[in-house]
Write a structure and sequence with these properties.
about 325 residues; globular; mainly alpha; two-stranded antiparallel sheet; ABC transporter involved in vitamin B12 uptake, BtuC
């Protein structure tokens, strides 16, 4: 029983780390712009496709060791998807800021459809095999079996999360982002270029989403144009659970949602005597979303909004 429990814990941590990385993109954009970027799931989906194209190009050119090819493809994917995120914000969201929050949100839904169908048209709607970046070798740990892919995903996600936390809390540009999340008007009066801060979060968020997509595709061995829809909604649920707008909350929400989903899927069929099977896996995420919105709308680490805080942060 202990070995089975350990396997489920590692699985939950790996999946939760992926959810957390995607949730960071949602929460950063919302924290600064008060916008739900519904196209974020498509940035997650584009990551493994761009990685595959880059790897194919590098292998065709030849001359580099496989490890170097992989690192270059990962960096190219992060940068390219980040630049795409900046372009989407500049041309699809920024012109609509003056028209309230609904117009940019509808534009985000439109961009989600455009990006998904662009891959359908250029690559095809069918699922495509994605090779494991790290050899999926079993490792015995405390009597249980885990895989190198699971440990690699967890380690990479923790490094990325720690790096983002250090960047936001310990750099001058990070101060710009935090200031813009408080008040655009006051930040501008203090000489902070708010549009640059916005462009930066649209570079970092989609880039992290692309990294999560590569990890997800490597873990499950498959990628498809619709993969960003369900996973993106789950990551959005993780952001809500942790407190949307809070970077630590997005990380916590991702790991908690991963644990709820994995342990619910593993043990509910046992408890229910087989009446509820693993096909109800996605139900757990959206049940959590409903419960959080009902009983703690601000999330676990989110700020409870009162009339006083709304007045204090209002941009005049």
């Amino acid at each position: 029983m202990l070995d089975y429990l350990l396997q489920q814990v590692i699985f939950a941590l790996a999946i939760g780390a992926i959810y957390g990385l995607i949730a960071l993109g949602y929460t950063m954009v919302y924290g600064v712009m008060r916008l739900i970027n519904f196209a974020h799931g498509e940035f997650f989906m584009l990551g493994p496709y761009l990685f595959t194209f880059t790897m194919a190009a590098l292998l065709a050119l030849g001359g580099l060791p496989p490890l170097v090819d992989t690192i270059v493809a990962i960096v190219v994917s992060f940068v390219a998807i980040g630049v795409l995120g900046i372009a989407v914000e500049r041309f699809a969201y920024r012109p609509l800021r003056a028209y309230g929050r609904l117009a940019p949100m509808l534009s985000a839904l439109g961009m989600s459809i455009v990006l998904q169908n662009a891959i359908r048209v250029t690559v095809g709607p069918q699922p495509v095999h994605f090779p494991a970046i790290v050899p999926n070798s079993p490792i015995e740990m405390l009597g249980g079996m885990v895989t190198t892919t699971q440990l690699g995903i967890l380690a990479a996600a923790v490094v990325l999360m720690a790096g983002l936390t250090a960047f936001v809390n310990g750099t001058r540009i990070g101060i710009w982002i935090r200031a813009a999340s408080e008040s655009w008007t006051t930040s501008s009066l203090l000489g902070i270029r708010v549009n640059r801060a916005v462009s930066l979060i649209f570079f970092i968020g989609p880039g992290l989403g692309a990294m999560a997509g590569i990890m997800y595709a490597s873990y499950y061995g498959i990628m498809q144009p619709t993969m960003g829809s369900a996973v993106g909604l789950k990551a959005f649920t993780a952001a809500i659970l942790g407190g949307i707008g809070s970077i630590p909350g997005a990380m916590l929400g991702g790991f908690l949602l991963g644990a709820i989903e994995v342990f619910g899927t593993a043990f509910l069929p046992i408890v229910s005597g087989g009446a509820v099977g693993t096909e109800y896996r996605d139900v757990f995420a959206f049940a959590v979303l409903i419960l959080v919105l009902l009983f703690k709308p601000a999330g676990l680490l989110g700020e409870t909004v009162t009339e006083e805080t709304v007045v204090a942060k209002k941009d005049y």
